[in-house]
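To whoever is on call:

I kicked off a structure prediction for a single chain this morning and the downstream step that reads the tokens threw a length-mismatch warning. I double-checked the sequence; it's 453 residues and nothing unusual in it as far as I can see. Pasting both halves so you can look.
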Amino acid sequence: MYFIYQLILLLASPLFAVWMLVRVLAGRMPGIGQRLGFFPKPPRPKTGPRLWLHAVSLGEVKVATGLAAELRERVADLPNLSNLEVIFTTSTKTGQQEALRAAGPRDVVLFPPLDFAWVCRRFLKYIQADALLIVETELWPNLFRQARRACLPLRIVNGRISDRSWPRYRSTLWFWRNVLDNVDHVYASGQADAERFLALVVSLEKLTTAENLKFRIHRGRTQSGEFVRKAAAQLLGSPETKVLVAGSTMPGEELLLIDAYRVLRQEFPDLWLILAPRHPERFGEVAALLANARIPVTRRSAWQADQSIQMTGALLLDTIGELASVYQLATVAFVGGTLVNAGGHNILEPAMFGKPIVIGPSMENFSEIADRFLRDATQLQIPLATEVAVGGIIQIRDAGSLAPVIRYLLASPIAAELIGNLARQVLERSQESYSSVLEDIVSLLGKTHSKAK
């Protein structure tokens, strides 16, 4: 199996090299040296146990940094583990920025190795980790094999296989069976994911069905910065002021939100729109959309501490890492990637603040979480809206219901509060202890670090 994989990599190398060069020149593949196993300085001497946490992008990085924080709390009083070091690897710019923001003084943030055997060997030798945790599902055949050969314990935490990727895995079971043989244990994010890992021939002894770690959100990790505190004082100072926060929006959604905002502002003249595009490279594009719609826009990046926020209009959140705390400003929260076929984004951060949340039909990437919030949902009759499901969140069928549903929530504060409180209750019930996962990792680090001494 690995011979076939290596042959494919070898034959595809020329095309891959060209593709990679194009991405590097376009600024879309930063850290190419690290990805190829070359580093500008020698490895830092180990002062304690070293854990490698790999997460692809922003959502997974938040799980990884939260897990690292709880591990530090667990080992703080353990003499041989209290100086825990974490190596974070993440593939995207936003993930890198979040990891750098949350990293401790002994931590390192790197780009992950490309899945060539020689690159993985160089990377493993450089970082000298005592254990490797893969957050969610990044199945890299050569990395997993080289980790096993280096006797590096490997766990998959919050393991999930999305509806989109499952057919691909299922059609190549023979291949992934060999890859997953190199994994010591899988903590699946729910029953459906556990069943899929079992189908990939992960034995029951190596599989635990755990709570989705994305439910493990702490208000302390979304503390309000100076901007949010001042924005709250300015935007929420009047009872007439209402705020629509649209987070993690994708191409095509901003125009729908702008159209809805222009309609709603006729009825709610003190309505603010806070737009947070998912990808930083689109900040300028979204600012232009707002300008073309003649909506006054304030860019968060241009805001100064002594500056008053323009009233009223749109606030473009063109920074990284603030959206989670900005949700507390919302009268209504819309979570993007759901009105277009993008699979949805995380609804847990606005739920933590008890905000009424509106999503579109596309939630394939977060289907288990959405199902939890929509359990026992009922159909809500709203003028000009069709097929509106209401539970801990409100899910609309299409963009035609966007403005009517938001209007209903803005005009019905009691109903909005009830829906927001239900969202918070669903989240709190789902934040069950995952002590067994933490205890396993602490025990693992203790064993491997002792052997390495």
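Update from on-call: the warning came from a stale cache, not from the record. Cleared it. Sanity check on the structure: The chain is about 45% helix and 15% strand.
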